[in-house]
């Protein structure tokens, strides 16, 4: 066992190689061995020195965490690409079209309710079908849709369609994306919950990370385009740059799906999958009739056990989607006259970047910090309900269109960006807490070890339900804002 490591050491007089030369990987003749197996670890310690086995375990854990980070990014990749191209899609509509003010809310609602419906269908089979099979199928659908959106849809087809036909096509694409995302999300959370709470946190972190990357690229392109337009004053080049940015986002989305295929392939070959995950689903498939009844009862039972956490994660996203992005994209700079780099084509991408950075900090760092990791479901629910106070704060910002002379209560851009940052950090922090604690027997003694995957996908379903309800609530919030202006 571990002959490859032994052969590496045979030509060296040192009992432990230089760290720069040592790569703690499982050799080819032991690829199916568990890196945490005591016999394997004892051998590594004898050959490489004290604590070498710990290095191997840490290295393997990092690779597994990164794979789940990539899969988590894949879950929200299409959603982030879609919402970041809302301004471009709106620009394809005539200036007098009524759809210009409602397109983002319509597509957000279609996507979220479609995701909710398909996730409900996926929930019925959690624990009975191997998550990797569904994961692979959903990635295929997502890849094909992303490639077709990249070209020819976004640069060639959409600009020439009538308003009604464009809306129909966009609704269809949103439904296809919601279908593939729902099954991908269900599979990823089921798989991560069987691995452990750290991997579930990795999924949540990946969801926030991809949002930062997508919005960061969008802002950089918008900034470059704004500088170019301020230099030569040619708007056509800016429009082409905006179109190029949209194509680039969907091309990056396609590449990200390929990365998800690679991550899935690695996890499926990992010893822990072979030893823990695969046998569970092999057993489920052999007892499918009995399993259907058991899982249905388990879902109802877990919903009652985790009702505070499920309500909390739903309400987090009800509040978020009710204002972001439908209302926040109507908030413009308070500077008069507005500097070129604070005009809407730069100001809006900037607010996306700030939101996503805050969300990533909340998901990745605040939720993993032990002093901030609340485990009381009631306290988490109280904090989630408290986020409702952010809605009137956004009302007080410079929401447009606004009557001349109607000065907003919050009349400083920096204060608006601070509100966005706190809003997003609380979104990521509470969302991750709910998802991790709901499926972790160590942090949540209400659930058992064999209920982890069902509990995780149930919390995921409630999260999407919150997204759907929030996107629907955005119409009411928007109407309230219009009456107040």
Automatic annotation (TrEMBL):
It is a multi-pass membrane protein. The chain crosses the membrane at residues 64-90, 102-122, 134-154, 160-180, 201-224, 244-263, 309-327, 347-368, 380-402, 414-437, 458-481. It is found in: Membrane. One of its GO terms (cellular component) is plasma membrane. Its main location: membrane. GO terms for molecular function: nicotinamide riboside transmembrane transporter activity; nucleobase transmembrane transporter activity. SUPFAM superfamilies: MFS general substrate transporter. Keywords: Membrane, Transmembrane, Transmembrane helix, Transport. It comes from the Eukaryota. Pfam families: Nucleoside_tran. Belongs to the SLC29A/ENT transporter (TC 2.A.57) family. This is Solute carrier family 29 (Equilibrative nucleoside transporter) member 1/2/3. It comes from Cryptococcus deuterogattii (strain R265) (Cryptococcus gattii VGII (strain R265)).
């Amino acid at each position: 066992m571990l002959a490859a490591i032994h052969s590496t050491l045979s030509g060296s007089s040192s009992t432990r190689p230089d760290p720069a030369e040592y790569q703690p990987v499982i050799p080819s003749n032991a690829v199916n061995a568990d890196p945490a197996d005591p016999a394997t670890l004892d051998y590594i310690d004898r050959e490489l020195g004290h604590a070498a086995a710990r290095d191997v375990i840490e290295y393997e854990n990092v690779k597994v965490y990164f794979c789940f980070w990539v899969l988590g990014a894949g879950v929200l990749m299409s959603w982030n690409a879609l919402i970041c191209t809302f301004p471009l899609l709106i620009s394809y509509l005539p200036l007098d079209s009524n759809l210009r003010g409602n397109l983002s809310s319509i597509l957000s609602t279609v996507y979220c309710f479609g995701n909710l419906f398909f996730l409900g269908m996926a929930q019925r089979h959690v624990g009975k079908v191997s998550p990797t099979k569904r994961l692979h199928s959903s990635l295929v659908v997502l890849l094909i849709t992303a490639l077709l959106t990249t070209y020819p849809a976004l640069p060639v087809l959409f600009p020439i369609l009538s308003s009604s036909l464009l809306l129909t096509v966009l609704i269809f694409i949103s439904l296809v994306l919601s279908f593939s995302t729902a099954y991908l999300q269900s599979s990823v959370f089921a798989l991560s919950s069987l691995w452990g709470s750290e991997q579930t946190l990795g999924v949540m972190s990946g969801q926030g990370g991809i949002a930062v990357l997508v919005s960061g690229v969008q802002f950089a392109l918008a900034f470059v385009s704004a500088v170019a337009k301020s230099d030569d004053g040619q708007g056509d080049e800016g429009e082409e740059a905006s179109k190029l940015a949209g194509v680039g986002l969907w091309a990056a989305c396609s590449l990200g799906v390929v990365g998800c295929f690679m991550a899935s392939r690695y996890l499926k070959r990992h010893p822990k999958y072979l030893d823990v995950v695969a046998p569970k689903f092999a057993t489920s498939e052999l007892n499918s009739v009995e399993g259907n009844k058991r899982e249905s009862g388990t879902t109802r039972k877990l919903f009652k056990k985790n009702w505070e956490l499920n309500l909390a994660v739903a309400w987090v996203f009800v509040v978020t989607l009710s204002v972001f992005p439908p209302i926040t994209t109507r908030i413009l700079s308070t500077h008069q006259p507005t500097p070129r780099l604070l005009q809407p084509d730069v100001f809006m991408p900037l607010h996306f970047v700030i939101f996503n950075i805050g969300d990533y900090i909340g998901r990745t760092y605040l939720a993993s910090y032990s002093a901030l990791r609340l485990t009381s479901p009631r306290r988490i629910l109280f904090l989630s309900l408290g986020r409702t106070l952010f809605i009137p704060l956004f009302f007080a910002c410079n929401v447009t269109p606004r009557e001349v002379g109607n000065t907003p209560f919050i009349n400083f851009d920096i204060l608006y960006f601070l509100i966005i940052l706190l809003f997003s950090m609380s979104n990521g922090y509470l969302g991750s807490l709910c998802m991790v604690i709901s499926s972790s027997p160590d942090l949540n003694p209400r659930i058992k070890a064999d209920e982890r995957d069902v509990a995780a996908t149930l919390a995921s379903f409630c999260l999407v339900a919150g997204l759907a309800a929030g996107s629907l609530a955005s119409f009411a919030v928007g109407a309230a804002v219009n009456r107040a202006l």
